[in-house]
Amino acid sequence: MSRYSPSREMRVIGRIGVPKAPAWMEDAACLRVGHEKFFGPASDEGDETEEEKEAREDRARETCDGCPVRAQCKQYATGFSNGLQVGVWHGGNDDQRKLDHRKELRRAAEKRRRERQAS
Questions:
Q1: Rounded CA gap, 32 and 26, in Å?
Q2: Which of 46, 58, 70, 103 is most buried (most C-beta within 10 Å)?
Q3: How far apart are CA 90 and CA 73, in angstroms?
Q4: Distance (Å, rounded) from C-alpha 70 to C-alpha 76?
Q5: Distance between CA atoms of 14 and 62, rounded to whole angstroms?
Q6: pLDDT class of 74 with cuts at 50, 70, 90
Q7: Whether pLDDT at 78 is above 90
Q8: What are phi and psi for residue 94, nearest 5 degrees?
């Protein structure tokens, strides 16, 4: 799994726990682009249609395509197995990360099964 642990990367500011950004994020292509491309509209701004969401996510993926820290971003985003990480990260959206997580669980189960058979 991921070497990034959200709980390990927490720092406390007053009484609120705020995640500390990993150093590699300074090199991310999305750093100064604006969050609205990678995340849906705020709840008070209304919903976006499925077509609007797909178009927004396509624009976000274009930014991710040439990012020098895409591998670190994927590892970081998949470290949030509790589903807290939403939006487009490393060029993948929530559904793609869930699918990747299920594939990883199946690979790990198959590896354990083979190890048990070999012993």
A1: 10
A2: 70
A3: 5
A4: 10
A5: 38
A6: confident
A7: no
A8: -55, -45
